[in-house]
Amino acid sequence: MSTVLVEPAYHTELIDGCEVEKPLPKNLHAFIQTFLGAALLARLPRRYRAATELNVLCGADRLVPDVTVMERSARYENGDLADPPVLAVEIMSPGQTLSDLVDRCERLHKLVLHNVGLSGRNGGKPGSSHRFPSKPPKKI
């Protein structure tokens, strides 16, 4: 008898000491995420990289933004990004509320990040523009 290892259909985030399942992207969400990641990779200067679904350490939390831009020289701990990313993007998923999405962005912003992008369903803005700048953005 053989054993089959099946990858889970979600990522695990660590928020306030509790493990929380984040479903893997599906359909349009995955397309937007891939397109945005590829577009960023094609246009970013060489000192930056873009990745999708990358574990990011935010103090004691571990979050998984949809798209992350980091410096090539960024530090990693056990495969998780330990240095603050330059940009994190969250894309609204079906079944996710605007309040949940804004909470995620606020957590990223509060803990380490100064540039957080928020995209609504079908790539549109979810209501008014939600950007959380606390410092002038770095020039890329």
User: Can you tell me the CATH class?
Assistant: Alpha Beta
Q: What value does the Rg take, in angstroms?
A: 15 Å
Tally of helical runs:
2
Class of secondary structure makeup:
alpha+beta
What shape does the CA trace take?
Answer: globular
The CATH topology is given as tt1808, chain A
Total number of domains: 1
Distance between the termini: 54 Å
Oligomer: single chain
The description of the largest β-sheet is: 4 strands, mixed
The CATH architecture: Alpha-Beta Complex
Q: Could you characterize the architecture of this molecule?
A:
- The chain has 140 residues and is an alpha+beta fold.
- The protein has a single domain (10-123), classed as tt1808, chain A.
- It is built from 2 helices and 10 strands.
- The protein has helices at 27-43, 98-111, and strands at 10-15, 18-23, 48-52, 56-58, 61-63, 67-71, 76-77, 80-81, 87-91, 116-119.
- A 4-stranded mixed sheet has the order 3-6-9-10, sandwiched between helices.
- Strand 9, helix 2 and strand 10 form a beta-alpha-beta unit.
- It is globular.
- The termini are far apart.
- 26% of the residues are buried.
- The model is unreliable at 122-137 (pLDDT under 50).
